[in-house]
Amino acid sequence: MTAGQFADFFVLLAEKTRGKTREGKPFFTCRFRDARRTATAMVWEDGGWFSVCERDWAEGEFYKIRGTYTESERYGPQIELQEIRPVMQADHERGFRAADIVESSRFEPAKMLAELKELAEQNIADAPLRRLVATILDRHAQALMNAPATQNRFYPFLGGLLEHTLSVTKTSLLLVDRYRDHFAELQPPLNRDVVVAGAILHDIGRVLELDCTAVPQPTVPGRLMGHILLGRDLVRDTARDFTDIDPQLLQLLEHVIITHLNLPEWGSPRLPLIPESLILHHADDLDAKLEMYVRCLMRDTATGPFTDRDPGLGRSLFKGRKV
After folding, report:
1. How many CB atoms lie within 10 A of CB 198?
2. Are the C-beta atoms of residues 13 and 34 closer than 8 Å to each other?
């Protein structure tokens, strides 16, 4: 839609926040979105929609709106509501698809998961560790295919966790092979199995940290523990079914999961004490940052040679290049 356009359209209610004016009058700020854009609708106490918004509108639900899309220089994209109702079964029969509204990975989740399993099968030499990784992937397949990598930083869309994990695993493989050859005198050599298994499972705690709905929200364990500790516990608990797994190999895998963020200020509970953790950290950080840069550059609509300031990156990016 363009500024000033009036239409009927489908949206997802991503956020509903109650507030008060300086005079104490209540209102709701409702942020509706589709796969590409978010627009705000203000619901005032005397505006006609306040009671139904307060009582019935729910985050994560889909709605059909009749209204006007506008763009405010100060407040950004806005929606002036004329009519609104929840999506009904008849809408599905006429062609409404939730997948068209919710932002999701441009890659097919089932294919990404199959490729990730194949990488584990081909590149983890230790059989018990390979079975452990495969078991975890199978048990949490549906959540993996739905979950974002993060709520609002990198890969913040459905399937984002799987896209990020697959990318990090491929980069980690390149790095560990490169540095195993470069530091061939190191004994024992860099452990390829630890790097690959760690890359596949480094963010597995996200499937427990977030509820993996259309608008993912932190779970109670997610808020209390965070994805790093949840991921380590998930790996440890699953490993109890594998009596033949090497305990030191499992310990190293747990260490790279716990330390892959590298720095305490980034949320790492421990500093990395083995080189395999450095490989995973830099593959992970590079992939996250590049996704944020690319998304900022591809979606920015600001005039001039620089993007608007990206809150996640904390900077404006140069987009005026010709080469």
Report:
1. 31
2. no
